[in-house]
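Demo today. Your pick:
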Amino acid sequence: MKFFLTIILISLFASSHFSQSNNQLEDINKIIIAVKEKFAPDKRVALFNIEIDKSGNSYILKGETNLPEAKMNLIEQLKKENLNIKNEIKTLPAEELGDKIYGVINLSVSNLRSNPDHPAELSTQSLLGTPIKILKKARWGFYLIQTPDGYLSWMDDDGFHAMTKKEINEWLKADKIIYMQDYGFAFSLPDEKSQRVSDLAIGNLLKLVGEEKEFYKVNFPDGREAYVKKDQCKSFTEWYTNINPTPENILKEAHRFMGVPYLWGGTSSKGMDCSGFTKTVFFLNGIILPRDASQQVHTGEMIDTENGWDKLKPGDLLFYGTKATEDRKERITHVAIYIEDGDFIHAAGRVRINSFNPSKPYYSDYRKSGFIRAKRILNSIGTQGIESILDNEFYKMK
């Protein structure tokens, strides 16, 4: 009888201890979730993948983040709980990268993917000359990188040139040219009949090293030398100094892409999706927007559209999707640029013009019924996630 009583008491003690341990794990997980929601609510621009394991009387934090402040906040909160915490969280950039934790896009248009694999979804693209951060290496030569709009994606090492702090600073302070034609080429000699070094797309940046005849002599990020026709590009400094992001100039750049095919993840004159289109148009006016429509909708000044489009102005962004209900959250899936008289330009199948106005032959009932709200961007540069190019931290000296 005493034996069975002892077994019961041990079982009750073990059960109580197990229950207490489980409760502590649940409490820790709640703290992890709260920290993630505070510092990294959008996984597209912030990495915070943390797990908790129990080993004896200790709790082991595992995972990785690119946000040191979030990691410190989590550890400080857990210390307040008087728990025996062992920190094994890896802070990115990964140590294995050494001092080459910066880079510059090395192709006219580089593809960035949702996973480290060539068949993976094209999540976005980045243009030649764009500075990036390198966070870690994966399989098959893929690296997790971050672009100036904050986007986290995977790129193979042919798409960028890795650099040290010294090298990226040399690139950032160097004189550059910006390519201004929709498409073109860089040549091995100052002669259009010479061997092509690379294709080029509007918005590409190259280091300026000299002039010869009607050509600029340039360097690619990896050091390749090439020649680009002067009448197809501008000095970046001169271009940026004189840029004027007015509604008229926004629409001028938007219309130049008419007919360009839709490409999911595309952000260049070769092909673009809806937010890639708006992002590229604004970049060519010196402005960096967030990458996706569901991110762009949180920027800018809200416009009253309760009574239709009468208060909209040229250059405003229009957002579409499904409205929130009791059972589901609002979902923004599309973005366009307003022109006037109910007309808007957007990437849908191709870059095209549609209208809210039923009297127009290109009226779209589908877009009218899916309209959610409008935002004015040009009044908010420097705030709410809208930056001029050289105010973005990626373009500043390290």
